[in-house]
Each structure stands twice: as structure tokens, then as C-alpha cells.
Amino acid sequence: MASHTVSDNTISAAPLAATVDAKNRTSITSSPAAASLKNDAIATVASNRRWFSWHEPGTSPEEKKLIFKLDWFMLSFACLMFFIKQLDQNNISNAYVSGMADELGFGPGNELSWMNTYFSVGTILGGLVSNLIITVVRPRIWLPSCLLTWSVFVLALFKCNHAYQFYVLRFFIGVFESAAWPGVMYCLGSWYRKSELARRSGLFVMSGVLGQMFSGYLQAALFTGMHGKGGMSAWRWLFIFDFILAIPVAAYGFVTFPDTPHTTRAFYFDEWERERSRQRIEEEGRKPVGKMDWSVIRRIFGSWQVYSFTAAYSFWTLTCGSYVMQYFSIYLKKTGLYTVPEINNIPTCIGAVNFVVMVSTGYIADKLGGRALVCGVVGCWMILNYSILTAWDVPHKLRMAAFIMHGCYGCFTPLIAGWANEACGGDQQKRAFVLSFMVSVGSAVVIPFQQIQMASGEAPEFSKTHGWGSALAWVVALTLWTGIGLPLVQRWRQKEVVHQKQSTKAMSQTIVVIGVTGAQGGSVSRTFLQLPSWNVRGITRNPGGESAKRLKSEGVDIVQGDLDDKESLIRAFRSAHVIFSNTDFFAHLQQAMAQPDRTKSRTTLEYAYEREVGQGIRIAEAAADPSVIKTLERFVMSTLSHATKWSGGKYKSVYHFDSKAAMIKATEERFPGVAARMSTVTIGHYVTVWKLFDRLAPKLQPDGSYLVSRNTPPDFKMPFIVTERDTGGFVKALVDLPPNKHIMGVSEEMTLPEWIEIWGRVNGVRAAYKEISRDELFEGVPEDFAKEIGDGFDYFHEFGLTGGDLAILHADQLGVKVPVTSMEEYIRSEDWSTVIQ
Asked: Can you say whether residue 193 is alpha, beta or left, with left for phi > 0 and alpha for psi between -120 and 50 degrees?
């Protein structure tokens, strides 16, 4: 049976018109209440998000499985890689205070600062190109290769005896390490939703914190157990062990890293998961649209993101927060109160604070849906810590506390990166470049500051250079910019974009969608909203309704219109280039069954037929008005086949099929101008009909299996459509084609036994199909409703969706490709919690 067995038009709202979007299931009974329908409403997910949840409320089990795979394979490698990166970045300071400086005669000069500087120069040069390379070279190859290469240079450090040797190797370590942070952040932003990103970014950066901490613990352990082994000092063994730890991580990345949603070949994803991964990002307006050509330069440097986020990250690096652990180690050594293992272990408390703050701020940022407040609060905390260190002449314990509590600084990294990921949206080159550029510039600007005002030779007081006071000024700048300035710039730019879109509306085309709050109309509106050259105008009798308000917030121009009022339709249609006409037989049928006095001398089915045909003709008449047709290019009608004609008179009373044919005939005879612009989409069988007619859903059996029982022959191929997803694609195809084309709106054809086999396999249950009689299926259902649906099924089974009309073609027969949802994709994405017990 075709789609119009359920209402799709909320202009004539009624209980039967429960749509998929409303998540209602309706059971048809013989109750004498206002009709024959009993609403078994599914509880709506609470709008308030739960704190400390790893998944967003309402995430389906199949999508949770997809996210689990991303976390298990991609995020795990990302965390391990960043762990190794921070281990290798910080090993030099641990080695410095654990015998390297004394053994090689370092200390009076600024050797440690120069080692940091050469590393930063390498980071700058490598970072400028690494994230552009990652958009053309598979991340699965590029990232592990960089990890392996820099680890070889780390290994070479154990042979160094002169400062210049350290400088050269640290430079090349920086070149290849520059790929790690922006590269992984780019990939995370390619897979995770905005609401998921801060938590994962925080976990990723926290792994680096653990790397910092582990470097201290490892050096302390090596000093105790390996000092002098093989004739080498413990600090030399540190570089060897760091290299050994990196090898299995690189191998793991080569095997498991999934690249990006549009290029992935990961063995652990099935086809549905690959497609769903792409859909998840596209649903947030982040579909990859950026092209790798010379226009990328204009897109990047003409954007606000590259300057705003580079400023934010530069302010952060200028606080010298990432060097404070080094200064703390030097401070502990200069006091003469601590052993070498203690000098390595105590600064790891900074990492512990960093870990806790990152966990909490990541969750809070996700839940608040923004980062400005979190940045402002943490910035104030940093101001307090830096103020204590600037004063310096304070009790030893307070100074220790200021060093340790400085660990809060690290949360800015995932916050700023996640913010930039979201702000750059779907332009993958811009997003990749901004992430790497802000790191490169941040690394560049800190070099002279770290060399002059925070030089290691002046550590830890920096009394001559006033280093702590200068850093405090940058902390204030960071707090004001990320807490106030950056969000203001973002809002200003967003308003400007909206204004630009509004300014270009006059040059855009407009589609008017009738039944915009229903399954078909909603799909059409979503499809055209994604097209920058189209405006979507939705007609509803109740513009103040919740569905209408939601659509308005998404960009639909909601206007009041009544299918029984031609003048309201004319007003709604003016300046339209396309009209999508969608009428509703079953809303009228339910009204007639609930209020028999409406029908007068007619049957309820005749009444519903006449009401639907009347509204369809009124739509065509309004479209034919001179003020409308002067701009109208296409009139697309949702329809069904002419049962009386194509059955040769065998089925003369399938009213909800024949009503559409009557509307088409009247349009052709009375409104030739509209007919000349008309195309039709013959909608297939709603795969979601089980939500509206409860007995069509899989039912639990005593043996624990599930059974679908219908009067459809087991060898009949049902022309299913996932209406709320795929209707818009068929309408868009008709708009692009010349007029008077007729397309079959079908997502996939298969038998019911094939469908239930997929359903059982996906849900991990035993399931089967059973053909039953028409009487069994409609037992207890009101007579008129059972007759209409039953006759529709019989005609449908015998003559098919089109009835044999050769003018109605599949999309490929028309030479167009329409994106559709397979049945397995639909089943995997659907929430079956009300069915599976």
C-alpha cells in the first residue's frame, strides 16, 4: 500500500496525521471514540541534556556502536600519538635536570631555551604545510609516518655531547611533531559532531598531559635503576626508551586510523557506518565543500577565523604556560631540598591538575554549547596563579601551590582547537590550515619572548627580565579575548552572514512546500535548505505551532495558508519558482468517521475523496493566478497511480489513489499553464508505516522471536521509501529536469521476508514473516478504513505501485541520480526500543 495511508499534511491536522517526525505510533481499534485511532505516544526525550553522558540523548544503539568504533580505534591512536609527542617534547627538560646539564656543562647559558627555540622553529616550518598535506595524503599514512620519523631523531639524542647537536635534532623533531596536534584535531573534527568534539578533544589533549607526567616518572625510574648501565647516564637511556615506546604506536596507526569519513577504508566500518559518518557531519552543515585550488588562499586569508583563532592561540603560547613545568623543575633543583627523582616526580602534579581541569571543562563546554564562559573562568584562575609568581616574594608553600595549580592552563588547547574546528565548518582546507597556522604563529611569537624574558638562565625568578609580570599581561589578554572578544567577533560575523543571505534572497529561487511539517514536506524543505541558491517557504495553517517554529529556526520562511482558502494560497505562492503540492486523504477520512454529520448523503470515503480533490484543484487554481504563474517554473505534485484506469475497472473505489488522478485531470483541463509546468512523484510504501498502524510492526512471540504479519505475498517486492529522508531528492531531480516528467519515489525494493531478515540481523534477534488474510489483518478496524486500506493493498499487490503506467520511471531511467537510503541503513538508524522488548 502506498504512502498516503497516513497523513502527511498538517494543514488538516488530525490524530491520524501523526508523522514520523512526531515519533507517534497509532493503533487502529474499533473504539467508539472520535474515530478509530488510539495514540500510543512514545515518550519524548527530555530536552535538558544529562551531565556527564558520553553520548547525546536520543543516540540510537547503532550510532552508539559507530561512535564506539571511532573512540576505540581513531581516538585511541590519537591519544597514544599525542602521549608520545608530549613525552618526546618534554624529555629534554627532564634530562636537563637529571644530570645532562652537569655532565655536558650546560647551565650558565641558555642552552635549554635554545633547545626549545629550535624545536619551535621546526614546529613553525612543519606546521605550515603538514595540515595541507593531510588533506591530500591519507592521514593513516601521514600521521604514523611523522611519528616514526621524529622518534628516530629522538633516539639520536642519546648520542649527543654538544649543544649544537641537540639543536639540530630538536629542530627536526619539531618539524615532524608539528603534524601531531593540528593533524589529529583536523581528523577529530572530520568525524565527531560539535556536541561530541570538546569531550574527545579534551581526552586527546589529556593524553599529552599524561605523556608529560610519564616522562618525569620514567626519568626518575631510569635514574634509580639504569644510571650507569651500559656505561651511559640515566638521561641518555630516557631517549632510547622513548623511541621503543613509539614503535608499536606507529604500527597501530598504520593499521587502524580511519582517515576521514569521505575517504575511509577502515576494515571495522560497514557500509551503513561509512554512510552514516558522512551524514552525521553533513547534518551539522559541515559537508566538505572546500576545493584544493588557488581559491583556498582567498578563502583562508579572507576569513575571520584565521586571524581570530591565531590571536587566541598566540596569547596562550605567550603566557609560556607550556614551559612552566620546566621552570618548576629548575626551581626545585635550585632550592637544594629535593632529590633527582623528586625533582622529576613533583612537577607531574601540574599534569594531574591539568588532567582534572581538562575533563571538567570539556564536558562543561559541550553541555553549555559554547566555550567563552569556560575560557573566562579558567583565565581568571590563571591570573591568580601568575600574580603569585609575579610577586615571587611569598612563602615557599604558596609558590609551590601557584606552580602546581598552574596546571589549569592546558585546557585552552582543546577548547580553542574545538572552537576553530566548528567555526571553520565544512571547508576542509580552511579548517586544516587554521589549525596548523595558529600553532605555527603561536610557536613563532613565543620564541623571542621565551628567549629574552623567560630565558632558562634567568629561571625560575626572572627578576631581571620581569618574565612573570610580562606573562601575566598575556594571561589577561588571553582571558579577555577568549572570554569576550572572540565570541563577539563570531556573533558579529554570523549576523553578517545572515544579512548577506537575506540580501541575496531576491536573486535566489523559492520553493513553496505544502505540508511542510509532514514527512514528505519536511524532507523537501531539508533538501532545498542545503542548497545556497534556494529559499524555502512553508505553508501551514498554524504558524505558531511547535513544528512550524522549529522549521522557522532552521531557515524556512513559514507563512499562513489554508487549502480551503484560495486567496491565502495565492498570497503564499507569489514569487515562487517551484510549488510542491501534497494533499491528505486520510485527514478528511478521519474527520468524517469522527463526525458523520459532515458527510450528509455521502459515505465517509466519498466525503474524503471530494474534500481532497477539492483542495488539490484549489492549489492548482491558486498556482494559475497571473500573479503566481508569472514566476512559476515547476509544479511538482505528490501522487499515486490511477487505480480504476490501470486495473481496467477492477478496483473502482480505491479513493486515496484515484483522488490524485482526479486532481491531475482537472489541472490539465482547467489550468493548462500549470499543467505545462507540472511533474509528479509517485510515492512508494512508507517504511515507517509501522509507527502509524501498530499491527504492522514486528511482534514478540512466545519463543522470543519476532514476527511480521501482513497480507502481502512473500514474493512481492515492496517499493519502500524512507519518506522523511528521500522525498526531497526526488523532488529536486524533477526540478532539475524539464517539466512533465514522472518519477517513482522509491528508496529500495525488496520482499517482506528479505526486509525482516535484515531487521532481525541488525537487531540481533530471530525474526520471520508470515502472510495472513486481509480479514485477519483488519480485524476490529472500522469498516470504511479497513475497506480503503484493504482495497489499496489488493490493487497494489496485483498491479504494483504504478499500475503499469509506462510514463512513471525510475530515476536512472530519467538519467538522474537521486541519493536514497537503503533498508539496512534505515533499520540501523531507527529507534526500535518500542518494538524490541
From this structure: beta
**One domain, residues 459 and 509:** no
CA dihedral 397, 400, 402, 404 (to 10 degrees): -130
The x, y and z cell numbers of residue 835, run together, are 518494538
What does the alpha-carbon distance between residue 657 and residue 647 come to, in Å, rounded to a whole number?
A: 12
Q: DSSP per residue over 611-648, as a string?
A: HHHHHHHHHHHHHTSHHHHTT--EEEEEE---HHHHTT
The CATH code of the domain that includes 772 is 3.40.50.720
For residues 413 and 517, membership in a common domain is answered with: no
Q: What is the model's pLDDT at position 210?
A: 79
pLDDT tops 90 at residue 680: yes
Element (H, E) at 721: strand 717-721
Instruction: Check residue 58 and give left, alpha or beta (phi > 0: left; psi -120 to 50: alpha).
Output: left
How buried is residue 193: exposed, middle or buried, by Cβ count under 10 Å (0-12/13-18/19+)? middle
pLDDT at position 288 is 53
Kindly report, residue by residue over 157-200, the tens digit of the pLDDT.
Answer: 999 999 899 999 999 999 999 888 888 888 888 888 877 776 77
Is residue 318 situated within a structural domain? Answer: yes
On whether residue 34 sits in a domain, the answer given is no
Residue 77 resides in a domain: yes
Contact yes or no for 668/639 (Cβ under 8 A): no
pTM score over 0.70: no
Examine residue 2 and state whether it is found in any structural domain, yes or no.
Answer: no
Q: What angle do CA 16, 20, 23 make, to 5 degrees?
A: 90
Classify 516 as helix, strand or coil.
coil
Burial of 133 (0-12, 13-18, 19+ CB in 10 A): middle
Q: Which residues does 235 contact at the CB level (< 8 Å), separation at least 6? A: 94, 95, 96, 98, 99, 100, 103, 219, 222, 223
* Single-letter amino acid code for the residue at 789: I
Instruction: Kindly state the cell numbers that stand for 493.
Output: 560575523
Report the C-alpha gap between 24 and 44 in whole angstroms.
10
The pLDDT value recorded for residue 620 is 96
